[in-house]
């Protein structure tokens, strides 16, 4: 088991903001509508990365059977539940207790056993995991370097880290912050553009923490296709990484 540490990464104001959205998290037309659109795209990348890393054939229904998975910043469980359905023994940790309660309630309705925790990831005393995921979270923490160190601390030596975040570009300022919030696609105050990390910055943090990036893809948008995986990382990107060998 991994010992708890004293690292502090939670931004209390951010946690309160997202905790206030807990009741609508599972409503695909509510305040988390954009996450519901984003989740299937992320899952396509995640499934392919899991198969590539662990030698899967892309056909089995349960590629995480016999494996453990940790989702950091899990919200109300939008990613934890698919990971559980892929066969994983899943733990989800979120800064907002309201989100964790909503996650527990939804998992119970879905007949899924998921270990949900509220609070700092560093304080949970969790062990290491085969898969660690962290989607759209690092831009909300107070210390990205300390946060990455905590993520790495929970990855098994042969494990896989999957992480996504918005890019800090002129396009993301216009479309993810100004337009999306003004048009109600995401709640007001969700994003602070200055806290977005570029792929180069995030890759540097991961490399400094002893990881090597395996693959990185952009998540782009078009009126015809909606959100999709792309080589264009101007808005958002997702990556897989492992401990350097």
Q: What do these coordinates show?
A:
With 245 residues, the chain is of the alpha/beta class. The chain has one domain: 3-Layer(aba) Sandwich (Rossmann fold), CATH 3.40.50. It contains 7 helices and 8 strands, in the order ααβαβαββαβααβββ. The longest helix is centred in the first third of the chain and has 22 residues. The protein is globular, with a radius of gyration of 17 Å. The mean pLDDT is 87.
List keywords for this structure.
alpha/beta; 245 residues; eight-stranded mixed sheet; 8 strands; Rossmann fold
Give me the number of helical elements: 7
CATH structural class: Alpha Beta
Overall geometry comes to: globular
**Helix and strand pattern:** HHEHEHEEHEHHEEE
**Beta-strand segment tally:** 8
CATH superfamily: Vaccinia Virus protein VP39
Q: State the CATH architecture.
A: 3-Layer(aba) Sandwich
DSSP strand content: 15-25%
Please bin the fraction of helical residues. Answer: 25-40%
Alpha-carbon distance between the termini?
22 Å
Structural category is: alpha/beta
**CATH-derived topology:** Rossmann fold
Task: Note poorly predicted spans.
Answer: none
Note the main sheet: 8 strands, mixed
Side by side, the strands of the main sheet go: 3-2-1-4-5-8-6-7
Structurally, the number of domains stands at 1
- Mean pLDDT over the full residue set: 87
Query: What is the rounded Rg?
Result: 17 Å
Topology of this structure?
Layout: H1 12-19, H2 33-54, E1 68-72, H3 80-85, E2 89-94, H4 97-110, E3 115-118, E4 129-135, H5 144-153, E5 155-166, H6 170-182, H7 199-208, E6 211-222, E7 226-230, E8 236-243
Parallel strand pairs: 1-2, 1-4, 2-3, 4-5
Antiparallel strand pairs: 5-8, 6-7, 6-8
